[in-house]
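User: Let's play a game. I give you a shape written as tokens, and you guess the letters that built it. Ready? Here's round one.
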């Protein structure tokens, strides 16, 4: 038996991220859930007591201050201790970005357990979610805000195992930003600010991950785009330059010649001989 307060929502299908369920449970001794398979991601955090979480033929003996991840389509079981049954909170979510979110905080089915000393904050997040359980826009955004705070606390607790993942994540975010804004004036400071890092550290990890400085990456991406437009469109050289983020056609002509050894006009003519 358990004394639970919970709320469930329809599972999101094409959304990037949506909350499916959240709640708080005080269990009786030896209360067991499962074996069961979920269709969404589920995070539990233990507020008090202890119990056992089982997945992939592995038993995790957990206590207050620890939590565990359940991934979709995995058979799992969890049971409260016979003498110190656990009290826990949970949040379930799904969507196209759910797997990336889980990876970004250092959790996986092979590493499903986390620890956090921020019990009060995590408890408050779920309590606030339970207060906003109406299906309207205001409550939906409030629940998402509490969810992201919940996730940020877990990410902070796993910080020591995230440096490489974080570096890759920052670089992917920066590259996506460059790809979406290459036609606009771009600065390293602007991109660093977008991913939430100072300029020096951002430049360092970007060079480490890509082998190029951010400026070199932007320049190479713009030149690649310019060459593609010269090959596939009838845009003028000036239009190609502006489309690729060059403020003056002369800038494209000069840099293009340095890279390819010929002018953009000669490059286009050679391709269509």
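Assistant: Ready! My guess for every position:
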């Amino acid at each position: 038996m358990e004394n639970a307060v919970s709320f469930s929502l329809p599972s999101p299908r094409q959304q990037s991220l949506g909350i499916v369920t959240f709640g708080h449970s005080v269990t009786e001794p030896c209360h067991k859930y499962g074996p069961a398979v979920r269709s969404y991601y589920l995070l539990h955090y233990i507020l008090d007591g202890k119990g056992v979480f089982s997945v992939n033929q592995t038993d995790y003996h957990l206590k207050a201050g620890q939590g565990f991840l359940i991934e979709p389509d995995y058979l799992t079981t969890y049971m409260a201790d016979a003498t110190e049954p656990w009290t826990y909170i949970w949040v379930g979510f799904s969507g196209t970005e759910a797997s990336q979110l889980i990876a970004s905080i250092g959790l996986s089915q092979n590493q499903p357990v986390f620890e956090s000393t921020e019990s009060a904050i995590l408890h408050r997040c779920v309590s606030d979610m339970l207060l906003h359980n109406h299906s309207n826009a205001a409550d939906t955004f409030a629940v998402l805000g509490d969810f992201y705070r919940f996730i940020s606390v877990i990410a902070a607790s796993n910080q020591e195992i995230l440096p490489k993942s974080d570096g890759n994540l920052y670089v992917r975010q920066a590259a996506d930003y460059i790809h979406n804004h290459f036609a606009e004036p771009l600065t390293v400071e602007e991109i660093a600010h977008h991913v939430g890092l100072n300029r020096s550290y951002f430049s360092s990890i970007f060079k480490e991950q890509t082998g190029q400085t951010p400026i070199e990456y932007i320049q190479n991406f713009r030149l690649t785009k310019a060459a593609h437009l010269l090959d596939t469109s009838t845009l003028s050289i000036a239009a190609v330059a502006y489309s690729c983020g060059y403020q003056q056609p002369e800038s494209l002509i000069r840099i293009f010649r340095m890279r390819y050894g010929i002018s953009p006009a000669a490059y286009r003519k050679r391709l269509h001989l």
